[in-house]
Amino acid sequence: MLYLLARCVKGAVRYGRNGKFNQSPDKRRHGTSPRKMRVNVLALSALMRGRATFSGVDYRDVFGMAGPGDLVYMDPPYQGVSGLGDPRYIAGVPLAEFGEALEALNRRNINFIVSYDGTCGGKEYGSGLPDGLGCGKFFLEAGPSTQATLLGKSETTFEALYVSRGLLPVVPRGANAV
Length: 178
What we know:
Layout: H1 2-7, H2 34-48, H3 59-65, E1 71-74, H4 95-107, E2 111-120, E3 123-125, E4 136-144, H5 146-150, E5 156-163, E6 176-177
Parallel strand pairs: 1-2
Antiparallel strand pairs: 2-3, 2-5, 4-5, 4-6
């Protein structure tokens, strides 16, 4: 999985209807040498051991496990690109449902960061998280749009990063606040 993430276009692993990997290799990136990858993986493992949990469960289950002092980071399917008509992505989480779950985190004083929507070429993708959550919204430059490049255009993608109100004094370096 690490090899696929390091070598495929946009680091986005995608599968076709038959369940087989179908993302193209990114010819601009050569990946990390196996020796260096081993060193990095072992160092990260030592750093995270006993401090982090990785799981494959419904996001609401993870929210239920979180407590004060925890930080929940989420990168759900983006609004605007995760519709039922696009077979590359799973269907997105309904915004109202997601907003209610985030508000429950706010009530429990659990901080979160969400990468959720964005802009490219003047077009906005998604309607954003509800204002009532009190999040800060920052745009992070994600680089040239792969889709625009394929269409012969030169456009830059900006991904929106929402930061819960408990983290608002912390501003990501290089981020543009909205």
